[in-house]
Amino acid sequence: MTSRQAKIQEDTHFRIMRILQKDSDLTQRELAEQLGMSVGGLNYCLNALIDKGFVKMQNFQSSKNKFKYVYLLTPQGIAEKMVLTSRFLKRKKEEYEALKVEIEALRVEVGDDQESGVQLVPQVLDELHHVLRVVVVEVSRGLVGEDDLGVVREGAG
Q1: Which of 18, 31, 61, 85 is deepest in the core (most CB within 10 A)?
Q2: pTM, to two decimals
């Protein structure tokens, strides 16, 4: 079984390679912003991808800024991205199926009726029924008056 950390790392590598395949001349700062991670974290991941031979870094010769690099997927990197894409898609489908089961369980728990919207939880209905019975009994015994319940008579104001 793959560890949670390994899955996160694989997803990060997949996302990096996916973005680089679309736009290879992003700066590390721009790429880090798109990924929602630090530049240092991205640099670490890029170096790992370079070490594995999935990404190559080239100096952008025609650029006025000689510190500008492009990050290109190698043929091996393109093949690896296809493998990662397949595993990523499989994981997301499994997560989706698990979410559907969880959502259905929550709907049952709260008494959600998709046709009419959310209904009251059965326990709340039981409590309301009990409170109403107590109020009716207390009113009938004269223990509680209409004024105590905040009842407004028609025409009163």
Answers
A1: 31
A2: 0.62
